[in-house]
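Example 3.
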Amino acid sequence: MHYRGGASPDILALIDIDDRDKCMAAIPEPLAAGMVSDSAATASADHAAKLDRIWIIGLGALVAIQLWAGMIGTSFWLDETGTWWIIKDGPAEAIHRALSWSGQSPLF
Amino acid sequence: MAGAIWFLYRIVLRLFDRGTAAIAAFVFLCGSSFFAVDARPYALPILCITVATWAILRWSEANRAIDAAMFIAAGALAVYGHCVLSLGLAAPIAYGAAVFRNKPDRLIRLGLMMLAIAALCVPLLPEVLNFYATRTAHAHAGRPGAGDILIGLIPCGLTGGLVVIVWIERVFRRAVQLPAEYSHDKALLAAVWALFAPLFLAALSSVSDIQLYVDRYFSCALPGQALITGVLLASIRPRFVRQALLITIALSTIVWGKLLAGSHGNDDWRSAMDLIHKEAGSAPVLLVSPFAEGADFRAVHTPALRDILFAPASFYGEPPGAIRLPHAFAAKEQAELEAIAARIQNEPRIYLIADKPDRSYETWLVGRLASRCPSEPLEQSFGQV
């Protein structure tokens, strides 16, 4: 990113408030005004990006609640009943069946 | 699946920025919602592949042994999770090979890491051979056409296609701002992740009898497809167009999911068996094995396979008058069929439960019994059942 003032607002952010005021005072006025407006624009863009992220998290939560939670109680489909058969008689049988029945995953 | 979403977020954050990472994670959440609530192994290898990719990114930057170990462990677990879905490992391997193309020592280490994964997976060899031997039982889809392949390459169905169309329109209007962190290596990672598994399985289906072009078998490509869609979406200007597309993706995912919500996977065994329990009483219920392994009467009567070949009926409660039939119509086993026909021919009511579009058993029953027992279609849908 290019800053017209020649210094990054990130660098200014690392300077104490008092020191930053002194630094700004030492910079010629037109240049300092450009830096302040760039800094304000960056802060505004950061704020908008943060809002975007919160908004996306909200949308994602909506989808997860509607589908993940909403579908969890629906009927098993065929292959899911196969998973039930594999695990229904305990861990030892589960390992044996997962290895013997095709298309199954021993890890799962 | 929540873990895979988190690791995809971390990957895209490492490659690009927070905004792109959040959008890619959101698209992945929408595209993978089916697998998130599926009592099947597919979410597990997807998680392992995202962890392996995250580890290879860290290893390529810092060259730490812990990241290499994490890549090996996650890579091996991906194969143990599902050998077909482990095709997704092509993405981190291709990325590593591209990044270190001019550094032979790192390339050799990457090769050793791949060998370590292969060595850890040797115990799986019998299962892979068994999978190969029974490959026709897994051939659900046949050879894919161009339309099938296109659907396999775009996440979130039609809405994913809409994103691509809007993005192209925005490119012509010069309203697209690609991330500054773009590089060819990152593009290679995303492209291989998104395309390799579906294209490989499509090619395999076209040139051999291994018909595995089924969406769940190339679901390992979903994170890569979400990554690319996330980058495209994040680059679209102005902001409201991007937001409108995100809302469209969310709504279409919910609407589409809700349409299937009553019968996850389009098989509503629970409702079908509930109806049979309510209606049938002691009447004969012909159960056709939904598993291809129940190929004939001998398999159907094998005690060890008794539960699995009729797992939906076992799980939801087998009706008292159940009569078990092989998966495919047993035209060659006339004696068995005749015995069943003799048993049911004087019954006032019989029921048939099958989950395939093949209507051979129905045709046979109508042919044998129609004069005495006309069929009566139910005004209720159980998906494929």
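Residues 12 and 19 of chain A are 9 Å apart (CA to CA). Chain A touches chain B through 42 residues (CB under 8 Å).
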